[in-house]
Amino acid sequence: MLIGRFFGALAVACALSLPATAQIQDLVPHRALYKIRPAPAAAGALPLNASGTMAYELTRTCDGLEWRQHMDLTASGGGQDIRLEQTWSGSESLDGKRYRFETRSKHDGTTQPVIRGSAELKEDGTGEAKFTSPATRTVALPAETLFPMAALAKGIADRKAGRDGFDYRVFIGEKAEPPYRMTGILGVAPRRARELPPPPGDGDLVAGMEPFYMHMSFFDSKEQDAMEPSHTWGAAMLENGVEILGVQTAGSLRFEYVIERIEKVAMPKC
Q1: pTM of the model
Q2: Residues 231-258: what's their mean pLDDT?
Q3: Mean pLDDT score, 248-254
Q4: Which of 59, 80, 98, 228 is 20 to 30 Å from the Cα of 263, by its Cα?
């Protein structure tokens, strides 16, 4: 559940020459449960009460990855109360070229239209996304578009190669619009992430691994000259693709989630 990346010197050329499959296949299958809590308030911002849970499962198939993320969030502050239930599921091929997605959500008890579709990239890097719900629509994808797992895998590879910043096009599919422009930094994880104890369950998936920090700002592609992102996402990540702590911000909504339990998921017999 993530995204971010970048490199240095000769390592850049070497990493960029690797096929996407060499990176995506290194993301470890797992189940993780997170507790939602108030995030540290930004300077000059009012604190927001937030609580709930987030459950995430990443599964390996013979030709790709499948995932399901369910969030149950209650938040209040700044004169507003929010209750959000959302499930995001998808699958992505190991070569990073085929992607299927679906989002189901309830906002303050009201069921929202299901968002569903698929996307595919051609050999030249361009592609097309086809939405089948809530309405049929086709969206062109420019060259160098990344789908979520390819973006995450590339971010990890870029961090290993020494990059400290990134600027990518990422297509998620939560709305029928071109990919986001996603910019940000790669750096040292905050102390509260570095000092987290291994969670219950299969703690060996995280024990002894040093987290790094990915801070991502998402800009709508149609807002070519936007100075402010539509939303941001900060994540303390491990090199195997496990997120141990995250912070999400959209307008006045800001919350943090921290890992509470992790379990291994078996690899397929292919």
Answers
A1: 0.87
A2: 92
A3: 83
A4: 98
- Give the separation between CA 54 and CA 86, rounded to whole angstroms: 9
* Residue 61 DSSP code: -
Ordered by start, the domain boundaries in the chain are 9-264
What does the pLDDT read at residue 230? Answer: 87
- For the chain, the helix, strand and coil percentages under 3-state DSSP, each to the nearest 5: 15, 50, 40
Q: How far apart, in whole angstroms, are the C-alpha atoms of residue 161 and residue 156?
A: 9
Question: What is the per-residue DSSP string for 25-76?
Answer: TTSPPEEEEEEEEEPPPPTTPPP-EEEEEEEEEEEE-SSEEEEEEEEEEEEE
Please report, for residues 49, 237, 251, 257, the alpha-carbon distance to residue 81 in angstroms, rounded to integers and kept in the order given. 9, 30, 14, 19
What's the rounded mean pLDDT across residues 77-91? 89
Are the CB atoms for 262 and 206 separated by under 8 Å?
A: yes
Q: CA 238, CA 7: separation in Å to the nearest integer?
A: 17
Tell how strand 145-146 and strand 180-188 pair up: unpaired
| Whole-number Å distance between alpha carbons of 141 and 131 | 13
